[in-house]
Each structure stands twice: as structure tokens, then as C-alpha cells.
Amino acid sequence: MWTCWARGAILGFALWAAIVPAQAGDLADFNALMEAVASHNRVAIGYLRTENTDLASLELDRTREAWGKLLQRFGGRRPDMFEGNRLYHNFMTGVSGRLVAAALLLNAGRPDAAMDSLNRLRDDVSALRKESGIVVLADCVRDANQAMDALMAYNDRALDLGQADTATDVAGKAAVYGYVLNRCDGIAAEPVRSEGEFRRLVDGAQASLALIPKAIATRDADLLHRVLIELRSFDNLLAFRFG
User: Fold this and answer.
1) How many CB atoms lie within 10 A of CB 233?
2) Residue 97: phi, psi to the nearest 5?
3) What is the tens place of the pLDDT at every residue in 122-134?
4) Backbone phi and psi for residue 210, each to the nearest 5 degrees, phi listed first
5) Rounded to an integer, what distance in angstroms lies between the CA atom of residue 140 and that of residue 161?
6) Distances (CA, A) of 111 to 1, 101, 108, 115, 171
7) What is the Cα–Cα distance from 8 to 89, expressed in whole angstroms?
8) Statement: the pTM of the whole predicted model exceeds 0.90
9) What whole-number distance in Å separates Cα of residue 227 and Cα of residue 161?
10) What number of other Cβ atoms are within 10 A of residue 157's Cβ?
11) Out of 16-20, 23-27, 219-223, which region has the weakest mean confidence (pLDDT)?
12) Where are the beta strands (DSSP E) in 12-162?
């Protein structure tokens, strides 16, 4: 059934885009529709991360529904801000394939692979916007996730912080994460920046980051481990809610 759906979705897009030119629309409309897609996508990723495949499947259906609305609005003609964007066409044709692949993988009992497909959709959206110089909070949160991934490489209770190179690299990666986190705080629109949940996550992460110099100075790998676990939790929640 999903194979037929996949073929139909791809063929339907090709035919629709060829014969039904959409109105140009503006960036605000595109961003609003894309946020609807992204919000369901990140909730689906969150459920997959906790192995709740039934709810993940439901959110994946909602992601596809939201994507259909964006495709209907912008499949035939891109917003002006994306004129000359070399990624736009492949993005518009590729998202349906990613969503179909995620559904097939989930139905086949491969939730990790399905989550990878949905995470790649996040990457595609971010690359599309960056190609046109468009800055949004979700992309900054994605950058923060990647900086956190690099920092988590030092989540090891047996880590020797007495090694100068190790201590320097931990401090450097923590500084990068802090920089990106501050950038996200600055990018967020005022209603989001002042929202209680956003403040709790950003301020909490910054407070945890402030403990890393102490862990390095005292060569306390166990403290560093606890701080990194806290940071990962804040980081995951930022991605779940705002990424």
C-alpha cells in the first residue's frame, strides 16, 4: 500500500506542478506552512527517540498532511526569496520521498532508520533556507544540536582532564555550544524569547555550561559527565519544542 502511495505522491506532484501554477506568495506564508510541517516532524522524532512508534506514526501522518498543504501552495512557483536557489526544486520533490521512506521504515519495524530519515528532512529544510540567507530559530536550534553532539564526545567518567589537549578541546567545544545557544536566544522573536519554557531551557543550559570550567579546573570527569547529561536533556527539549 505504501509503495503505491509513494508512486502516487511523486507522480501527483510532477503533474500538479506542471499544470497548476501557484501564486508566488511571500516568505511569511512559506515559513508558516513549513513550521507546521517541522512541528509535526520534530514531535514524530521525539516519539521515535522514546520508542513510542504508535504516536510517531500518527505524527508522521500529520507531517505528510501539513506537507501537502505547503506543496499545494508553493509547489508550482517558489516565493521570491527562493529565486535562484539551486536547492529549491530538489527540496520540493525530495520531501515527499523522505516522508514515504520514513513511513515504510517505521512499518517495517525500523524506527531508528525512520528517525534518521526525518532528521535528514530537518537538514534539508535548514540547507534550503541557508542557501537563500534566511535565518530562523529552528535552524539555529539545529546548529546547537550539532554543537552539543560534538561536546557529548567527552561524556566519559574515565576522561583524563589532566591532559592539556583534552581540557582545551572540552573548553573549546563548550564555548562553541554556548555561542550558538546565545545566538539562538538573540534570533528568537520576542514572544518566544520571553516564553517561560524557552527561558527555562536556554537559561538552564547556560547555567549548566557555567559549571564546565570548574570541572576542567578540578579535573572532575564525574562532574563533567553530570553536566553533559543535563545539557543533552536541555538540548533535546529545545529541539523537540523549537527545532
Assistant:
1) 14
2) -65, -40
3) 889 999 999 999 8
4) -65, -15
5) 30
6) 19, 11, 8, 6, 35
7) 18
8) no
9) 14
10) 10
11) 16-20
12) none
